Amino acid sequence: MSALLVKGGRIVDPSQNLDAVGDVLLVDGIVAQCGGTIAAPAGAQVYDATGLVVTPGLIDVHVHLREPGREDVETVATGAHAAVAGGFTAVCAMPNTKPVTDNQATVGFVKRQGEAAGFARVYPIGAISVGQQGETLAEFGEMVAAGAVAFSDDGKPVENTQLMRTAMEYALTFNVPIVEHCEVMSLAHGGSMNEGIVSARLGLKGIPAEAEEIDVARCILLAKRTGGHVHLCHLSTKGSVDLVRWGKAQGINVTSEVCSHHISLTEEAVEGYNTNAKMNPPLRTAADVEALQQGLKDGTIDLLVTDHAPHHYDEKEREFADAPNGIVGLETALGVNITYLVETGILTLNEMVNRMSCLAAKIWHLPGGTLAKGSLGDVTVFDPKKRWVVDPKQFKSKGRNTPYGGHTLTGQAICTIVGGKIVHQVS
Amino acid sequence: MSLLGKDLVGLAGLSREQITTILDVAEPLREVSERAIKKVPTLRGMTVVNLFFEASTRTRISFEFAEKRMSADTVNVAASGSSVSKGETLVDTARNLEAMRIDMVVIRHASSGAARFLAERIESNVINAGDGTHEHPTQGLLDLLTLRQRFGTLEGKRICICGDVLHSRVARSNIWGLKSLGADVAVCGPRSLLPNAIGEMGVQVFSRIEQAIEWADALNVLRLQLERMQAGYIPSLREYNRVFGVTRARLERAPRDILILHPGPMNRGVEIDSDVADGPHSVILDQVTNGVAVRMAVLYLLAGQKASLADVAKGGAA
Ligand SMILES: [Zn+2]
Ligand SMILES: [Zn+2]
């Protein structure tokens, strides 16, 4: 028997409506007891969480781990290490790898790499279409059997609307979400930042908000038609929030997510041609940021994610329009979310934990997301008041591409526990 | 540090005083080009690299004349590269130039922000000779000088930039420079070739060329690149001329004489008709002459020269 007693922390577990100081006992990787004062069993390791917040392990349903194919940029192991350093006990890995994770063998490979690394749990997401070519449906059943938890062609949209319809219908068999990167390519084509006054000033081709919103509308309507579950990636505009709000009000099976950078930064971050502020969808306006924050508050947006996208330094060290999209986020997300959502009073700590853990498990049917007795012994312990300066050189991720370098954030993961074992700890 | 700072990457952010100084310095330098021996020793011993990632004969020649008339040593580098390799080329080129201890770089590049990118990575002075669809500050300055010579002051003068503002680096430099000097600025062109948010830059927007002509004291007619038709921004060059062309017939209906500027090279019969380009109100050749003077002034000021302007214009001992 192995036992770990997390003592004296403020337990915040929205899945049980729990917010109280108490202890959590993990035995053989499972929650044996949660809340109140618990006596340490003989031989148990004791972690003193006094003054800290203890929550169900954080889950990020949207990360890019680059393996197989670009192990020079990130591996499943380094990505999973970055995850626990940021307080995440589980991540869902997007399939736009090289080769594409569109078959049973690759899904199994990613899953095994995650298990071998022994940091965060890694749940593979399979591709919707073979090779992410947008033509032929990939083998969902085989991939689910190998451990896939959702399907997505993220990195790009499923442009073929008939294929998207079929994917939503076919996924009903397996009760998994179809996860769409919302972008109308013919409208976004060639753009490298939000279309607006900043792009006009900088002389960069813009991506209009409608490039996202038209696809959001299409997916909601297809979910209405099919009854399938569509999960919309990284919403970035006010219009998208309004459309999802409408869809949910109609009872359509749509869920959505927002990235930490989209609730904290605006297009102004691109000034100076800062490629570490280049991502897709792009950073938008202050009005969009506010709408996204409100969407989180009222439940229109279900989840907070990172869209962790590591790139080599020299790939970002180039002309803005030619630099790759994406930033790393696993090690800054908790701090960004606390700084920009909790400290500002937009979300309570409970609401934030719900959107970073409990709801992720619930709507994607993943294990964890709760500290209820008998559930996974995945626990995140964080200090919601700790102020720290982001130093990309300290990242466990191989990626250093962050727009938050040098920023002071409030809130940091202090101890990350996966399956009853401490896998990351700040002394 | 010179009045301009280390680099000239754009007119955005330059003060009215800085712009006025460049134009004031350029005025007497025009005279150098009128002499039998068109040379002053001002930049003797300095090395200037003209780094052109994108072909532009006119701009390169204008810079080269300016450099040579100031007695600088010049090296022309025509760097080409596929879109895939050009990122590495730019970083590597910057490092190599830095290692060769040159003094100034004039850069033309197809990517917006490329001049600034280089300026942030090398010690040498960097002059932007056009970056993507961002800025072309020396072109903007020569337009300002040309207008100032004709109008005396730009305060309250109404200048309309006509055509493909979306893809134009000249348009942005013009907008910022003109506004700094107190002019009223408008743009006119098909909405498909104007940035969606252009109104937020503090300019009027005309959708008909007739309105622009009715309003303006000067038109800066931009070159319409033939690719814009192929890319579907406009239906045809023929229609563009019919709807937006600056023609003599249209100018004859103007309530006042309008100066006509064009950055060149012109598509005669598309954005501008020949009889306008060669007509009495065209200052297009003045622009070319002023281009050399303005570039001499920028080189002079960035080099942080202490010699008085009078000495420069007199020439001293070459
Ligand atoms: Zn995406
Ligand atoms: Zn993504």
UniProtKB/TrEMBL annotation, chain A:
Pathway: Pyrimidine metabolism; UMP biosynthesis via de novo pathway; (S)-dihydroorotate from bicarbonate: step 3/3. This is Dihydroorotase. Belongs to the metallo-dependent hydrolases superfamily. DHOase family. Class I DHOase subfamily. InterPro entries: DHOase (IPR004722), DHOase/Allantoinase_Hydrolase (IPR050138), DHOase_cat (IPR024403), Dihydroorotase_CS (IPR002195), Metal-dep_hydrolase_composite (IPR011059), Metal_Hydrolase (IPR032466). Binds 2 Zn(2+) ions per subunit. Pfam families: DHOase (PF12890). It catalyses: (S)-dihydroorotate + H2O = N-carbamoyl-L-aspartate + H(+). GO terms for biological process: 'de novo' UMP biosynthetic process; purine nucleobase catabolic process. It comes from the Bacteria. Residues 52-239 form the Dihydroorotase catalytic domain. Zn(2+) 1 binds at residues 62, 64, 154, 307. Keywords: Hydrolase, Metal-binding, Pyrimidine biosynthesis, Zinc. Catalyzes the reversible cyclization of carbamoyl aspartate to dihydroorotate. Signal peptide: none annotated. It is an enzyme of class 3 (hydrolase). The active site is at 307. Its cofactor is Zn(2+).
UniProtKB/TrEMBL annotation, chain B:
It catalyses: carbamoyl phosphate + L-aspartate = N-carbamoyl-L-aspartate + phosphate + H(+). One of its GO terms (cellular component) is cytosol. It is an enzyme of class 2 (transferase). L-aspartate binds at residues 86, 169, 223. Residues 155-302 form the Aspartate/ornithine carbamoyltransferase Asp/Orn-binding domain. GO terms for molecular function: amino acid binding; aspartate carbamoyltransferase activity. Its EC number is 2.1.3.2. Residues 6-149 form the Aspartate/ornithine carbamoyltransferase carbamoyl-P binding domain. Pathway: Pyrimidine metabolism; UMP biosynthesis via de novo pathway; (S)-dihydroorotate from bicarbonate: step 2/3. Keywords: Pyrimidine biosynthesis, Transferase. It comes from the Bacteria. Carbamoyl phosphate binds at residues 58-59, 108, 136, 139, 264-265. GO terms for biological process: 'de novo' pyrimidine nucleobase biosynthetic process; 'de novo' UMP biosynthetic process; amino acid metabolic process. HAMAP family: Asp_carb_tr. Catalyzes the condensation of carbamoyl phosphate and aspartate to form carbamoyl aspartate and inorganic phosphate, the committed step in the de novo pyrimidine nucleotide biosynthesis pathway. Heterododecamer (2C3:3R2) of six catalytic PyrB chains organized as two trimers (C3), and six regulatory PyrI chains organized as three dimers (R2). Belongs to the aspartate/ornithine carbamoyltransferase superfamily. ATCase family. This is Aspartate carbamoyltransferase.
